[in-house]
Amino acid sequence: MALLLLLLLLLMMMMVMMMMMMMMMMMMMMMMMMMMMMMMMMMMMMMRRMMRMRMMRMMRMMRMMMMMIKNTGSNILLFKQHNEMFN
Known about the structure:
Layout: H1 2-50, H2 55-86
């Protein structure tokens, strides 16, 4: 009987852990979406300003944006690997 109870407890713990992981993933996704939205807004603002600026500056801005996006992507990948190591 005690063994059964223990098993049930363990299962519950596992479920909770899974839920936590899911929540974390969801949070990460939300963060990514927010970042993308922010980027878009920034781009729009920039575009309006860019009409007066030169193309060179625009290219530099684009490159910087791309770098930022790449960095965030790699960070999230690392986070996922970290999670998998723990499991």
